[in-house]
Amino acid sequence: MIKVGIIGATGYAGGELVRILAGHKDAQIVWYGSRSYIDREYADIYQNMFQIVEGSCLDDNMEALAEKADVIFTATPQGFCASMISGEMLGRTKVIDLSADFRIKDVPTYEKWYGIEHKSPQFVEEAVYGLCEVNREAVKSARLVANPGCYPTCSFLSVYPLAKEGMIDMSTLIIDAKSGTSGAGRGAKVDNLYCEVNENIKAYGVAGHRHTPEIEEQLGLAANEQVLLNFTPHLVPMNRGILVTAYASLKQNVTYEEVKAVYDKYYDGEKFVRVLKKDICPQTRWVEGSNYVDVNFKIDERTGRIIMMGAMDNLVKGAAGQAVQNMNLMFGLPEDEGLALVPLFP
Amino acid sequence: MIKVGIIGATGYAGGELVRILAGHKDAQIVWYGSRSYIDREYADIYQNMFQIVEGSCLDDNMEALAEKADVIFTATPQGFCASMISGEMLGRTKVIDLSADFRIKDVPTYEKWYGIEHKSPQFVEEAVYGLCEVNREAVKSARLVANPGCYPTCSFLSVYPLAKEGMIDMSTLIIDAKSGTSGAGRGAKVDNLYCEVNENIKAYGVAGHRHTPEIEEQLGLAANEQVLLNFTPHLVPMNRGILVTAYASLKQNVTYEEVKAVYDKYYDGEKFVRVLKKDICPQTRWVEGSNYVDVNFKIDERTGRIIMMGAMDNLVKGAAGQAVQNMNLMFGLPEDEGLALVPLFP
Amino acid sequence: MIKVGIIGATGYAGGELVRILAGHKDAQIVWYGSRSYIDREYADIYQNMFQIVEGSCLDDNMEALAEKADVIFTATPQGFCASMISGEMLGRTKVIDLSADFRIKDVPTYEKWYGIEHKSPQFVEEAVYGLCEVNREAVKSARLVANPGCYPTCSFLSVYPLAKEGMIDMSTLIIDAKSGTSGAGRGAKVDNLYCEVNENIKAYGVAGHRHTPEIEEQLGLAANEQVLLNFTPHLVPMNRGILVTAYASLKQNVTYEEVKAVYDKYYDGEKFVRVLKKDICPQTRWVEGSNYVDVNFKIDERTGRIIMMGAMDNLVKGAAGQAVQNMNLMFGLPEDEGLALVPLFP
Amino acid sequence: MIKVGIIGATGYAGGELVRILAGHKDAQIVWYGSRSYIDREYADIYQNMFQIVEGSCLDDNMEALAEKADVIFTATPQGFCASMISGEMLGRTKVIDLSADFRIKDVPTYEKWYGIEHKSPQFVEEAVYGLCEVNREAVKSARLVANPGCYPTCSFLSVYPLAKEGMIDMSTLIIDAKSGTSGAGRGAKVDNLYCEVNENIKAYGVAGHRHTPEIEEQLGLAANEQVLLNFTPHLVPMNRGILVTAYASLKQNVTYEEVKAVYDKYYDGEKFVRVLKKDICPQTRWVEGSNYVDVNFKIDERTGRIIMMGAMDNLVKGAAGQAVQNMNLMFGLPEDEGLALVPLFP
Asked: Chain B window 310-329: which residues touch C at a Cβ cutoff of 8 Å?
C-alpha cells in the first residue's frame, strides 16, 4: 500500500486527488495538508467525502510529511514546491508537483512568465515532465515529476501527432482554449463568484497566459524546432472541462485518412486518448469525471488549414488523474489503476 | 456473470444504468434496447461510452430479450412493462421495472393518477417495492421489482424514521421537492430546452403530481395509517439532484438528540443513507454521481414543527443506482457491488 | 430633476439601482458611494455601464451626501443606516434604506434576530414599511422608508389577500422559498463561488433566517393576529429570481373562482402584481429584469390546503425596483416612472 | 405610429422583437405571426408579456400582412422570405428579413452553403445588408433590408477597422466564436435540451458553418480583396451572448495607440459600438439585453499577430435590436429609438 501525502488537499485539484485515491486499491492517503483548514475534519470541508474519508487536515510541513509518505502530491501555488524541495527529501520520497515549478526546463523563461525567482533550479533538469503518453519510460524511474498544466495537456495532445510528424507549419499555430471554472481554483475572489461567471464568456490572459511557454516548449520538443504560438484561454460557465480548438496551416495537401493514420499511430495504444470518429467534434460533457482526452481534427481545404480539437476534464487528466497516472507508473502499477472512471453524463 | 438487458437504454436513466454497469464486475449488458436508435452503435449516441461500450442498439422486444437475459431493466414510459410482462417471462428472467407500473399496490389509484388502464394487475401483488433499505429481504427473493420513483425515494427516506416511530402528525406533512432537469427525461420538448430551463425555477404538477400516491402509500405503510399529503415538485436549472424539504408537526416536544437517535436507529447500518452532522443541510452537490442519500432535520421550537431534508442524485439512488442495488440483492451479490461511486465535486 | 445618492453602489442591489435610474427621466445620480472602490470610475467596476454612466466612486459619508442629495438609497449591511441617520439628516433629505434596519417595528425582535444593537430606535416608528401595494399613502409622505426584504416582498404578496380576508389558518402557514444567487451579495466568499453554487441546491438558515420575523410582522398586520410560521430559503443556481411556494390550510371549502376574486380584489389595480391565469404557475424567467411579481394559487381539495405561489426578480421588485417605486411615490411622480422594464427572456 | 408585422413571432428572435418594440414609442405590432401557435394568445406563449402585450397569434400569410403593415420583420427559416416576397409587396410595405435569404450578394454562394435554390434572386441586388454602422445611408432608403447574421455582426465589427485600413493580412484571419444557446433557436431538438448543453462546450459546423461566406463577403468588401477565412462557432452553456476571438498577422509593427486610433476612427460616433479601454477584454455579461457590441484588441509582439475581440447579445445587436435599428433608419426615426436598453447584470 502506497502511502500518499497531499499538500493542498482542500483545493479543487487536491479534492479531486482525494476522490480518485478513494477508489485506488493500492494507495492510502496519510496526510491531508491544508493550511486554511488545519485540524478540521477533511469531510467537513468536502462533504461529498462524508463517511468515505476519515482524518483531519494537517499543515503543509512537507519535510515532516516526507518521513511518512512514499509519495507527495503538491497541489499548491507556484513557488511552494520549489521552495520546499531538497535532495534529502527526494532521497526519502517521490514528489509529484501539480504546480508549474518544474514544468519548464528553461529557468529564465519560468522566472519571466511567473514573475518569481526559482528557488530550486538544481532540480529542474532531473524533473520529468509527466505527460505519460510522451514520457512514459522516464516517468517510471523519476523521483520528481512535474505534472503538466491543464491547458498544456489538452493543447499538446491535440496537436502532438501533427507536430511530431512535421505536417503543420508550427509558425501558424493558434490555440484557442475554453475552460470550466474549477480551473480558477477555490480562492474567494469576486471574479469567480457565481453571478460573475454565470451567463458569461470572456477571454483572459490574452497574449500573456503562463501556460504559453509550457505549451511552446513541449511542442517545440515534439516538432524539433522553436515554437512561438498564440494561446488564448477563455472562461466558460461550467464546472469542469477544457476544450481546445487549434488552427495551423498544413504543409501540403493531405487526406482525412492520412491524418487519421497519424493520430492513430501515436494514440492507438493509449488508453486515455480517444481519437473520435470522422466529423465527431470533442465535447467536454463526454469526458466529465474521467481521465480521457478526446481528440479529433477537420481539414479545411478552402484555407489549407487543419483544425485540431481536444476535450478533457481539467481536474482529472488536466490535474489529479494525470498525477495518479504518473504515480502508477512510478510505482510499477498498472497505468490505469484507480482511473477506470467512466465519464458522467448528463 | 449476470446477463443484463436494458429496454430504454438511451434515456437518461438507461444511460446511467450503462455507466454503472460498466464498472460492475459481475454483470454484462447483452441488450441495449432503444426504439429510437435501432442499429446505431450505442457509443454513437452516448459518446461518453466510446471505447468503453461495444454493441449497437436493439429494439424493445422484451420477449426475445427474456430468453437471453438473467435480468431485464425496463427504463420505459409507464404502461410498457405492464403491457409486456407475462408469467412465462418471469419464469425465465427477473425484471426490474424503473417505471411506475408496479409501484402502487392499489390498482385503481394507479389508473386514476396515471390515466391509463393497468394491463397486468395480476402481478401487482407479487411485485416488490424495491426500496432496499425497507424491503431488503423481500427484494432478495423477488422475480419482479418495482424500482421506486426518484421523488418518492428521497421523500420517503427523509421522513421514514419519524413516520415509522409515530413522532410526527402525518396529516400535517408537506413535501416541497426540487429536482434537476435530467428527471424530465431526454425527450425533445420545448419546455426542456436549455434556454427555457436555465435561469429559471418553477413548480409543476402542483397538487397533482403522479408521485404523490406512491409517497402516500409507502409512508402510510410505515406510519400504519392512511396518509394524505401535499407534494410539490420544482424544476431547478441543474443536471442532476433532488432536494426534499419536508415539514410536519411534532406530536410532542423532542430534543435534537432524541430525533437523531431515531434516524440512527434506522440508518446506522445503511451504507447508502448518510445522516449528516447537526445543522449540516443536505446539498445535491455532495451526492452527485453517487448512490447516497444524505438526510438531516431541524426542529423549530417556535412552531412545533420539524423540517426534514434529503438530497440524492435522481439518476443514481433515484433510478439506475437503486436498480443495480436491487439487482445485487436479487442475485445474492454484495449490495454495494458496482456502487462504490464517490460523489463528484465540483 | 431629483438628485440621488447611493451608498453601497457597487453591490448587486446598488448596481441595479444604477441600471434602473439610468433610464429614469426625473432622477440623476450624484453620488456613487462605495467604500471598496473609492476614486475608481464606476463603469470600471460595472463595465455594463461603460459610456452610460460617468463618475467615480465616493466614500460612504452619508452626512456629506445628505447636503447634496434629495434622496439617499442605502444599499448597505444592516446597522449602517441606523448608525448614520439623524433628525438633522432627515430634515434635509429623504432616506430609502434597503437594509433591514427599519423594517421591523419591534426593536427587541430586530436585535434578537440580527444580533446587533439598534442605534436609532427613535426612528423606527416613523419609518414607513415601503411595500407600495399596501402602504402607498404612507409612503407618499414619508421621510424614511424601510425598503422591504426580497423574500418578505415575494412571500407577503403571495399570501396577503388570503391573510387579509381571513381565509387561511395562519397557524398552518409554511413558506418554502427559492432564490437566485445575486441575493447572496457580491462579497468574496467560498460559498458563493461559481463551482460551489452551480449544479447544486440547498436549504440554508433553516428555522432561523432573518427574514422570518419581517414576514411574520407584516402578515400579522394583514391578518390582524400574531403569526408564527416556517420560512425556509434555498439557494438556486441562477443569477436572479425568487420563487415562493407557500402552504396553508383553508378555513373552509372555497372554489377557484372565490379565491381568484379575492386576489383580484387586492391586485386588480396594481401594475406590478400580475395574478396569472388558472393553473399557470409563476416562473422566475417570466419576470427577470422587471418589477413584476407574478402570483397564483392552487387549491388541493384532497388535503384542504391551498398552495400560494409567487415569482419575482429579487434585485428589482425585491430591492432596487421597489426602492425606485417608493422614491416615485415620495416625490409625487408616476409610480411606474423608470420601471416600465419588460422582462427579459430567455 | 409605424404598423409592424412579425412573421416568426414566437421564436427567440421574434420574441425579442416583441420585447424591444413594447418599449418603442413610434411602433405598434399589428401581427404576431406564428404557424405553431395560431389563435393562441401571444402572452400565453411568452408569459413575460402577460398584461403587456394583447393579441393572438396569426398565420404566416405575408401577403395579407403586407396590406396591413408598414414594415414586416421575417424571423423565419431561410427560404421563407425569398419564397414569399414580390415586387407588389415591396411596393406596399418595407421588409426587414432576419434570415439569410438576402444577405449574400453572390447567389450561387448562397445556394451552395444553404443547400436550397434561391426563389427571388431578382431582389438580391436591391437588398441592403443592414449593418447600420457600415451601410447607414443605404439603409435609410431601402425597401428590403437583409438583417445581418449574429456571428457575422460580431465578427465583422471586431475586425472591420483593421480590414478596412489594410493593417492585417486577411489571408491569415481566423475567427473563433462562442455563442449562447438562444442562437440555436426554439425548436425542440435533443441537442438543445438543458442536460445536453449544460456543463458542456463544443465546436460545431467546423469548416462548414453557413455564416462563413457572409463574413467573407462583408470583410472582402471592407478590405477590397477576396477573403477566405476559418470560422469556428462553439456552443456555450448560457442563454445569450456571442464572443468573438479573431486572430490575424499584422502587416507591419504597430503600437497600441496606432491601432486604437483606427478603432476610434470608425467607431467614435457609433452609439452601439463601444471600444473598451486598454487591456479590458469584452465579456458577454456586460452587454446582455442591450444593443451594444463591445470590441477591443491585443497586440502580441512575440508572434506578430493581433487578437481582435468582440462581445454582443446575439438576440439584440445580433438579431432583433439591429433589426429595429434598421427600421428606425428606414423610417427617419432616431437610430436608437427604443434601443436605450441598459445591459442587465448580473
From this structure: 311
ipTM of predicted complex: 0.97
Q: Which residues of B touch D194 (CB under 8 A)?
A: 181, 192-194, 196-198, 237, 239
Cβ atoms C232, B245 nearer than 8 A: yes
Amino acid residing at A40: R
By C-alpha distance, the chain D residue nearest C46 is D286
Q: Which has the closest alpha carbon to A2: A34, A20, A25, A27?
A: A27
* All structural domains of chain A: 2-126 (3.40.50.720), 151-314 (3.30.360.10)
Distance CA B48, CA C308 (A): 42
Show the low-confidence residues of chain B (pLDDT under 70).
none
Yes or no, beta carbons of C181 and A199 under 8 Å apart: no
- Arithmetic mean of pLDDT, A317-336: 98
Say if residues A185 and A11 touch (Cβ distance below 8 Å).
yes
A18, B345, B327: which is closest to B336 by C-alpha? Answer: B327
Residue D197 touches chain B, beta carbons under 8 Å: yes
- Tell me what pLDDT residue B31 has: 98
On whether the CB atoms of residues A28 and A66 are closer than 8 A, the answer is: no
Interface test with C, best of A34, A194, A202, A240 (most C CBs within 10 A): A194
Q: What is the reported pLDDT for A179?
A: 98
Distance in angstroms (rounded) separating the CA atoms of residues C201 and B311: 9
Average pLDDT over residues A7-12: 98
The Cα C149–Cα C213 span in angstroms is 11
Residue numbers of chain C with a pLDDT score lower than 50: none
**Rounded average pLDDT over D199-208:** 98
Q: Label residue D39 by pLDDT band (50, 70, 90).
A: very high
Q: How far is C294 from chain D (nearest CA, A)?
A: 10
Residue D336's pLDDT band, with cuts at 50, 70 and 90, is: very high
Instruction: Please pick, among A57, A150, A154, A195, the residue that the annotation labels catalytic.
Output: A150
CB of D188 within 8 Å of any CB in chain B?
yes
| Closest by Cα among B100, B232, B113 to B179 | B232
CA–CA distance, A52 with D96 (Å, rounded to integer): 62
Q: Are A325 and A140 in contact (CB under 8 A)?
A: no
Q: Are C169 and C251 in contact (CB under 8 A)?
A: yes
Write out the E strands in chain C.
Answer: 2-7, 27-33, 57-58, 71-74, 94-97, 128-129, 144-146, 168-179, 202-203, 230-235, 242-250, 273-275, 293-300, 305-312
| Three cell numbers, residue C103 | 423594517
Chain B, nearest residue to D346 by Cα = B199
D-chain residues within 8 Å CB-CB of B237? Answer: 194, 198
Q: Are D341 and D312 in contact (CB under 8 A)?
A: no
Instruction: Check residue C201 and give its pLDDT.
Output: 98
pLDDT at C52: 97
Contacts of C178 in chain B (CB under 8 A): 178, 201, 234, 236
Cell numbers representing residue B85 in the block:
410482462
Strand-strand pairing, D242-249 and D174-179: antiparallel
- Overall average pLDDT of the A200-220 stretch: 98
Q: Tell me the C-alpha distance between B291 and B240, whole Å.
A: 12
User: What pLDDT, on the 0 to 100 scale, is given for residue D346?
Assistant: 97
Does residue C224 come out as left (phi exceeding 0), alpha (psi in the -120 to 50 range) or beta?
A: left
Distance CA D78, CA D97 (A): 10
Q: Which three cell numbers stand for residue B187?
A: 425527450
Residues 236-295 in B contacting A (C-alpha not used; CB under 8 Å):
239-240, 274, 276-277, 280, 283, 285-290, 294
Nearest to D47 among C52, C286, C344 (CB): C286
- How many Å lie between the alpha carbon of B251 and the closest alpha carbon of chain A? 31
